[in-house]
Design brief:
Elements: H1 20-23, H2 36-54, H3 58-71, H4 75-87, H5 91-105, H6 111-124, E1 129-135, E2 141-144, E3 147-151, E4 158-160, E5 163-170, E6 177-183, E7 188-193, H7 201-247, H8 253-290, E8 300-305, E9 308-313
Parallel strand pairs: 1-7
Antiparallel strand pairs: 1-4, 2-3, 2-5, 5-6, 8-9
Helix pairs in contact: 2-3, 3-4, 4-5, 5-6, 7-8
Protein name: PEGA domain-containing protein
Keywords: Membrane, Signal, Transmembrane, Transmembrane helix
Pfam family, one: PEGA
Length: about 325
């Protein structure tokens, strides 16, 4: 690239074509297994990447150079890719690419070149932040700005560029959590996740159903008791009317019989409602006591047994 022509790295395919750029290459021997079509496409993408970088479009240049590297890998192109990351203010990308360049180049890189690239790496480090992610739950998938970063426990810190970063932890069976952190260069932040388990639908329904039964039973008991009171009052009124009719000298036998039937009907209804009230009251009491049948640690509760009511508890 023109901006770094004093030590720019050249792609393998550039050394295989006759051009001023190829003339300055290290001239590695071409591989007999390289496909000619791939070689040509790699050369075109490499040259396009150079032009885009000179035009100030570092992102598009990086993509073209990475495609060229995929077609015909050569460690030389990695340095140019690192420069594109650096020009885009992606310091982490530049750091990792420069380090990869040194690893893949190994002994082929001269000592002076190695020292120059190491200096670039040291200059990048103050611009890079890091976070330590912790969680009691192993296997928690961590992502940074929607990009996967591994699972807990993470073997090392996550390197990040400065700015506001969105850290998300997710795992099947738990509610996902997202936390935002604002990072400056050289920051070393910590992010901890305390996960909350998702409720089990079947268990919740059973729990809700069981907890509602006492209230339903007590409500029905109250309604039946009110009905028993009303019909009892009506039975007393009917009985009083019956006595008045009997005491009336002019009452016919039909009137007396109707009054007795009315009194009998209200009395039977009142008796049935009283019996139902007693029954539902007993059921309501049973479910109320059963609700506390399995108390938590340190709690006591009453339990209905064949012999009566006993006290149970857990410590």
């Amino acid at each position: 690239m023109k901006r770094t022509s004093h030590y720019v790295a050249l792609l393998l395919v550039a050394s295989l074509v006759s051009s001023p750029l190829a003339a300055r290459a290290e001239d590695p021997a071409p591989s007999a297994t390289v496909d000619a079509a791939k070689l040509e496409e790699a050369r075109e993408r490499y040259n396009r990447g150079l032009r885009l970088y000179d035009q100030g479009n570092a992102l598009a240049a990086r993509i073209e150079l990475e495609r060229a590297y995929e077609l015909v890998p050569s460690y030389r192109i990695l340095y140019n890719i690192g420069l594109c990351y650096q020009a885009s203010n992606d310091y982490v990308g530049a750091l990792r690419t420069f380090q990869r360049y040194l690893i893949e180049g190994r002994d082929e890189i001269s000592d002076d070149r190695h020292a120059a690239v190491n200096k670039e790496i040291q200059n990048l480090k103050p611009n890079i932040a890091s976070i330590t992610v912790s969680s009691r739950e192993p296997g928690l998938a961590i992502s940074v700005d929607d990009v996967p970063a591994g699972q807990t426990p993470l073997p090392e810190k996550i390197l990040l560029n400065p700015g506001t970063r969105r850290i998300t932890g997710s795992k099947s069976g738990f509610l996902p959590q997202t936390k935002s952190v604002v990072l400056a260069g050289s920051d070393n932040a910590s992010v901890s996740f305390e996960l909350v388990a998702l409720p089990v639908a079947g268990a919740n329904k059973e729990k809700e159903s069981g907890s509602a039964l006492p209230y339903v039973a007590w409500g029905l008991t109250g309604a039946l008791a009110a009905g028993a009171g009303i019909t009892g009052y009506l039975a007393l009124r009917a009985n009083a009317d019956q006595n008045d009719i009997i005491d009336h000298s002019g009452a016919t036998s039909a009137q007396v019989e109707d009054a007795r039937d009315k009194t009998r009907t209200f009395s039977i209804a009142a008796d049935c409602l009283v019996a139902a009230t007693i029954l539902t009251g007993g059921i309501a009491l049973y479910f109320s006591l059963r609700k506390s049948d399995k108390p938590s640690s340190g709690e006591t509760a009453a339990r209905v047994t064949p012999g009566g009511v006993s006290i149970v508890g857990r410590f």
